[in-house]
Recover the amino acids of this structure.
């Protein structure tokens, strides 16, 4: 296949990680794949690409091209080239400016390398116009799922206003009740940066979704019936990391060695461990961290807890927690980056407390692990609905406020955490049925990416389209 594709990931781990996986999928099918990113982001993806490029059967190694990040011009401090570097998950006006300013250097790379198509994250509103200028298709990489596309579309038509009353979202295959406080700012108060995204999406060639048909078929059918937009479901992309070293290298350098992590997990009974992680950007107040510690200790299941807070342990851990809990081998704290895929796919893991970032939900689904859902910001409350009410593989901890600011979210008490965790890890009929549904989804997820599976075939049909388009341009 003689195709050259540029991949332009948004500069946040939750967007970059799956797009790197996608570039690997394309490369595995013989496509020349080039990832375009900024210098400070290269070390985050290089280890994964080195592993991928070690595969001798790859026709073209995956390349990286570097854009210069406009720190000075956008007013961002040197080296802050990824949302991961900031204290909260918000796309600030400065960061939005920087993202928009990448257009000019990106065009220079297009001129120099003349790829046949661009896969650009949904956050690059300008990418469709640029692709048009170069006479090539732009594919939108959507960081979320089709359920969210459908529900957010229905909400827009509702013309909501602020209220405390829960409301039904009409026109969906399932009954869904939401509240205003669960909605992200980009739905309730979209700014210019967000408003522009719709145009980029509408004028694109189509959209790539990290999900799979069997997971949300009702919603995928609904979108396909209702719009002309071409959609390809190509996930779960995380399943393209089968080797332990691929799982461990994904996204960043882990703050714990794989050996230490696996030895700890190996010492635990099957399905006994709870994994607690709030994604790459999810931070909690020290009061909230304290309540989590109380909840985990009280529920008495072994746990791995990923904490993204640099301060002293004494600021948030209950007194003598280390003596009673972590020191006793009942809990493992990872302060920094965890090898999430390695952990989730270990047989000792039986539950996942997640902030409901889409990658984490899908990684939980792919590993067959039921979840306690604790959404924080962005579209995470929608993902919670999908996991808890549609797929029925999760229990909501009871979070109520969607916000990028940890102080505004309201406190979830230790008792509520213990209750949800005990229910999830329990052995009553409901818990067993939830586990069976999770196992079934794992099986479907794995089938989707195998040869002949729905996602595998969507990738094939997309690549056929790209080849035909190139031929029709007479190149
Ligand atoms: N992740 C990880 N280790 C961590 C935190 C996150 O490997 O300590 C990965 C996780 O596996 C997922 C991504 O980072 O692939 C986070 O994406 P998600 O959509 O779940 O949440 P976000 O970080 O975008 O809020």
């Amino acid at each position: 296949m003689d195709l050259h594709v540029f991949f332009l990931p948004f500069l946040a781990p939750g967007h970059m990680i799956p797009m790197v996986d996608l570039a690997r999928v394309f490369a595995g099918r013989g496509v020349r794949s080039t990832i375009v990113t900024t210098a400070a982001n290269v070390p985050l993806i290089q280890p994964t690409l080195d592993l991928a490029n070690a595969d001798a059967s790859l026709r073209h190694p995956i390349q990286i091209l570097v854009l210069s990040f406009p720190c000075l011009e956008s007013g961002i401090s040197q080296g802050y080239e990824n949302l991961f570097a900031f204290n909260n998950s918000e796309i600030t006006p400065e960061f939005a400016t920087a993202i928009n300013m990448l257009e000019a250097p990106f065009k220079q790379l297009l001129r120099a390398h003349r790829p046949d198509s661009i896969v650009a994250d949904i956050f690059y509103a300008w990418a469709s116009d640029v692709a048009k200028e170069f006479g090539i298709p732009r594919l939108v990489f959507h960081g979320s799922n089709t359920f969210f596309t459908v529900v957010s579309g229905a909400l827009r038509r509702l013309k909501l206003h602020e209220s405390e009353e829960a409301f039904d979202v009409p026109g969906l295959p399932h009954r869904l009740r939401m509240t205003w406080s669960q909605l992200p700012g980009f739905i309730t108060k979209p700014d210019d940066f967000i408003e522009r995204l719709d145009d980029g999406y509408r004028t694109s060639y189509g959209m790539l979704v990290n999900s799979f048909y069997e997971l949300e078929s009702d919603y995928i059918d609904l979108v396909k019936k209702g719009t002309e937009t071409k959609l390809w479901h190509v996930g779960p992309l995380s399943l393209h990391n089968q080797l332990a070293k691929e799982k461990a290298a994904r996204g960043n350098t882990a703050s714990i060695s794989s050996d230490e992590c696996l030895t700890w997990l190996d010492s635990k009974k099957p399905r006994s461990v709870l994994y607690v992680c709030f994604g790459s950007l999810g931070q909690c107040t020290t009061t909230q961290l304290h309540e989590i510690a109380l909840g985990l200790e009280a529920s008495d299941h072994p746990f791995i807890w990923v904490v993204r807070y640099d301060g002293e342990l004494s600021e948030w851990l209950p007194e003598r927690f280390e003596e009673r809990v972590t020191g006793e081998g009942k809990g493992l704290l990872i302060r920094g980056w965890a090898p999430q895929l390695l952990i989730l796919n270990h047989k000792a893991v039986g539950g996942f407390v997640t902030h409901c970032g889409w990658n984490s939900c899908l990684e939980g689904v792919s590993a067959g692990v039921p979840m306690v859902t604790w959404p924080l910001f962005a579209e995470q409350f929608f993902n919670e609905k999908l996991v808890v009410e549609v797929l029925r593989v999760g229990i909501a901890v009871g979070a109520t406020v969607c916000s990028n600011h940890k102080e505004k979210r309201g406190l979830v008490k230790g008792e509520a955490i213990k209750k949800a965790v005990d229910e999830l890890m329990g052995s009553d009929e409901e818990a067993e049925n939830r586990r069976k549904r999770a196992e079934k989804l794992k099986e479907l997820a794995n089938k989707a990416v195998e040869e002949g599976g729905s996602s595998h075939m969507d990738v094939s049909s997309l690549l056929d389209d790209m080849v035909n388009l190139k031929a029709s341009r007479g190149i």
